[in-house]
Protein backbone atom coordinates (compact mmCIF):
# COMPACT_ATOMS: atom_id res chain seq x y z
CA UNK A 1 0.00 0.00 0.00
CA UNK A 2 1.32 3.41 -0.97
CA UNK A 3 1.66 6.01 1.74
CA UNK A 4 1.00 9.68 1.02
CA UNK A 5 2.72 12.37 2.97
CA UNK A 6 0.15 14.45 4.88
CA UNK A 7 1.78 17.67 3.62
CA UNK A 8 0.94 16.66 0.02
CA UNK A 9 -2.78 16.27 0.69
CA UNK A 10 -4.96 19.21 -0.25
CA UNK A 11 -8.66 19.83 0.17
CA UNK A 12 -10.98 19.31 -2.75
CA UNK A 13 -12.23 22.49 -4.33
CA UNK A 14 -15.57 23.64 -2.98
CA UNK A 15 -18.54 23.12 -5.20
CA UNK A 16 -20.30 26.29 -6.16
CA UNK A 17 -23.71 26.53 -4.53
CA UNK A 18 -26.46 25.21 -6.76
CA UNK A 19 -28.57 27.84 -8.40
CA UNK A 20 -32.14 27.81 -7.14
CA UNK A 21 -34.57 27.07 -9.95
CA UNK A 22 -38.21 26.30 -10.56
CA UNK A 23 -40.27 24.93 -13.44
CA UNK A 24 -42.73 26.81 -15.61
CA UNK A 25 -44.88 24.86 -18.02
CA UNK A 26 -47.39 25.30 -20.80
CA UNK A 27 -49.48 22.14 -21.27
CA UNK A 28 -51.51 21.00 -24.24
CA UNK A 29 -51.37 24.31 -26.09
CA UNK A 30 -53.43 23.74 -29.25
CA UNK A 31 -52.70 25.81 -32.34
CA UNK A 32 -54.19 25.41 -35.81
CA UNK A 33 -51.30 26.25 -38.08
CA UNK A 34 -49.78 25.66 -41.48
CA UNK A 35 -47.22 22.90 -41.08
CA UNK A 36 -45.96 20.01 -43.17
CA UNK A 37 -43.78 19.13 -46.14
CA UNK A 38 -46.32 17.19 -48.19
CA UNK A 39 -48.32 18.72 -50.99
CA UNK A 40 -51.63 17.93 -49.28
CA UNK A 41 -50.41 19.93 -46.23
CA UNK A 42 -49.74 23.11 -48.20
CA UNK A 43 -52.22 25.98 -47.86
CA UNK A 44 -54.23 24.40 -45.05
CA UNK A 45 -54.05 24.46 -41.29
CA UNK A 46 -53.85 21.45 -39.03
CA UNK A 47 -53.94 21.08 -35.26
CA UNK A 48 -50.66 20.99 -33.39
CA UNK A 49 -50.26 20.41 -29.66
CA UNK A 50 -47.32 21.98 -27.83
CA UNK A 51 -45.99 21.17 -24.39
CA UNK A 52 -43.25 23.36 -22.99
CA UNK A 53 -41.31 22.80 -19.76
CA UNK A 54 -38.87 25.49 -18.68
CA UNK A 55 -36.25 25.55 -15.97
CA UNK A 56 -36.05 29.10 -14.65
CA UNK A 57 -33.64 30.63 -12.17
CA UNK A 58 -35.35 32.01 -9.11
CA UNK A 59 -35.74 35.75 -8.73
CA UNK A 60 -33.03 37.23 -6.55
CA UNK A 61 -34.64 39.01 -3.66
CA UNK A 62 -38.21 39.01 -2.43
CA UNK A 63 -41.02 38.28 -4.89
CA UNK A 64 -43.28 40.92 -3.35
CA UNK A 65 -46.20 39.32 -5.21
CA UNK A 66 -45.02 41.38 -8.22
CA UNK A 67 -45.66 40.26 -11.80
CA UNK A 68 -42.36 41.84 -12.91
CA UNK A 69 -40.42 39.36 -10.76
CA UNK A 70 -41.55 36.27 -12.66
CA UNK A 71 -41.19 34.73 -16.10
CA UNK A 72 -44.68 35.12 -17.49
CA UNK A 73 -46.09 32.02 -19.16
CA UNK A 74 -48.80 34.08 -20.87
CA UNK A 75 -46.20 36.29 -22.55
CA UNK A 76 -44.33 33.19 -23.71
CA UNK A 77 -47.53 31.55 -24.97
CA UNK A 78 -48.39 34.65 -27.01
CA UNK A 79 -44.88 34.76 -28.54
CA UNK A 80 -45.09 31.05 -29.41
CA UNK A 81 -48.52 31.55 -30.98
CA UNK A 82 -47.29 34.48 -33.09
CA UNK A 83 -44.28 32.45 -34.26
CA UNK A 84 -46.43 29.45 -35.17
CA UNK A 85 -48.82 31.57 -37.24
CA UNK A 86 -46.22 33.80 -38.90
CA UNK A 87 -45.69 31.55 -41.94
CA UNK A 88 -45.88 27.97 -43.15
CA UNK A 89 -43.37 25.74 -41.34
CA UNK A 90 -42.31 22.52 -43.03
CA UNK A 91 -40.98 20.47 -40.12
CA UNK A 92 -42.07 19.85 -36.53
CA UNK A 93 -38.34 20.00 -35.76
CA UNK A 94 -38.21 23.59 -37.02
CA UNK A 95 -41.22 24.51 -34.90
CA UNK A 96 -39.71 22.90 -31.79
CA UNK A 97 -36.37 24.69 -32.26
CA UNK A 98 -38.12 28.02 -32.81
CA UNK A 99 -40.20 27.60 -29.65
CA UNK A 100 -37.10 26.66 -27.64
CA UNK A 101 -35.27 29.73 -28.99
CA UNK A 102 -38.17 32.02 -28.00
CA UNK A 103 -38.14 30.63 -24.46
CA UNK A 104 -34.36 30.73 -24.06
CA UNK A 105 -34.30 34.42 -25.06
CA UNK A 106 -35.61 35.20 -21.58
CA UNK A 107 -32.67 35.95 -19.30
CA UNK A 108 -33.80 33.59 -16.52
CA UNK A 109 -34.80 30.59 -18.64
CA UNK A 110 -31.88 28.15 -18.63
CA UNK A 111 -33.48 25.03 -20.10
CA UNK A 112 -36.38 24.40 -22.45
CA UNK A 113 -38.00 21.06 -23.20
CA UNK A 114 -40.41 21.35 -26.11
CA UNK A 115 -42.76 18.67 -27.40
CA UNK A 116 -44.56 19.21 -30.70
CA UNK A 117 -47.33 16.86 -31.82
CA UNK A 118 -49.24 16.82 -35.09
CA UNK A 119 -52.65 15.44 -34.21
CA UNK A 120 -54.01 14.42 -37.61
CA UNK A 121 -50.91 13.63 -39.65
CA UNK A 122 -50.95 9.83 -39.42
CA UNK A 123 -54.10 7.75 -39.40
CA UNK A 124 -54.81 5.55 -36.38
CA UNK A 125 -52.47 7.51 -34.08
CA UNK A 126 -53.23 9.99 -31.35
CA UNK A 127 -50.27 12.07 -32.48
CA UNK A 128 -46.81 12.07 -34.04
CA UNK A 129 -44.03 14.51 -33.34
CA UNK A 130 -40.81 15.36 -31.62
CA UNK A 131 -39.50 16.35 -28.21
CA UNK A 132 -36.30 18.36 -27.80
CA UNK A 133 -34.33 19.60 -24.82
CA UNK A 134 -32.22 22.75 -25.19
CA UNK A 135 -30.09 24.52 -22.60
CA UNK A 136 -28.53 27.93 -22.39
CA UNK A 137 -24.79 27.89 -21.81
CA UNK A 138 -24.20 30.16 -18.85
CA UNK A 139 -20.97 32.11 -18.56
CA UNK A 140 -19.75 32.11 -15.00
Give the arrangement of secondary structure elements.
Layout lengths: L20 E13 L12 E12 L15 H14 L5 H13 L4 E10 L9 E8 L5
Antiparallel strand pairs: 1-2, 2-3, 3-4
Helix pairs in contact: 1-2
Report on this model:
- With 140 residues, this protein is of the alpha+beta class.
- It has 2 helices and 4 strands, in the order E-E-H-H-E-E.
- It has a 4-stranded antiparallel sheet, with helices on one face.
- Helix 1 runs antiparallel to helix 2.
- It is elongated and about 75 Å long.
Short description:
This protein is an alpha+beta fold and 140 residues long. It is 19% helix and 31% strand. It has a four-stranded antiparallel β-sheet with strand order 1-2-3-4, with helices on one face.
Overall pLDDT metric? 90
The helix/strand class is: alpha+beta
Kindly provide the radius of gyration, computed on alpha-carbon positions and rounded to a whole number of angstroms: 22 Å
How would you sum up the major sheet?
4 strands, antiparallel
Cα-to-Cα separation, first versus last residue: 41 Å
Shape, principal axes of CA atoms: elongated
Instruction: Describe the strand arrangement of the main beta sheet, using strand numbers.
Output: 1-2-3-4
Please, how many helices? 2
Number of strands: 4
Beta-strand fraction estimate: 25-35%
Estimate percent helicity: 10-25%
> Could you list the spans in which at least 5 consecutive residues all have pLDDT below 50?
none
Secondary-structure element order, N to C: EEHHEE
Amino acid sequence: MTQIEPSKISALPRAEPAERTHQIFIRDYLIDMQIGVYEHEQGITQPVRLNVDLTVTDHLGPMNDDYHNVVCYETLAKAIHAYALKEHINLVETLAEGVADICLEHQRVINAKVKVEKLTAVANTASVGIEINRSKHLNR
